[in-house]
What does this fold into?
Amino acid sequence: MAQENSQYGWNKDMDQSLLLKLRADLKTAMRAKDVTVRDAIRQVMSEFPKLTVPLTLESGKKSSRLKKEEEMTDDDLLSIIQGLVKSEKTVLEFKKETSSEYLEILQNYLPAMADQQAIKAWIGENIDLGSLKNSMQAIGPIMKHFGKSADGNMVKAILKEMAG
It folds into this structure.
């Protein structure tokens, strides 16, 4: 009754939040005794305490409290997963490896990244690079449009290429 990894993952088109999907996948992985997926999802959940809400106490001191589950957004969780992906890639680079099962599981929960053609097309349609003093001024609107589905370094490289 082992589940395939393709069963796991999330995208914005699903009718449930990322948090609910992670919980459901954790349950499925535990039932299927899929230790790798179970541990990867638990690793993501162990990062939840990093999600906080800033507070100002009556004394004027700044503090924060943990976010309640209903306050956690998909973007909060995507940020956590992207951080874990980034650190895993660093570890793999150090080991001179290209991928790992853990990395692939995490990437199933991230939105598909925008490719160079999509970013270039959007820039061509929406931004007049000639009107800007510096092409790097376009990074803000581009990243706002693509959000977490665009790599900032790739956007920077595309802008340099288009301006040059």
Summary: The longest strand covers residues 52-56.
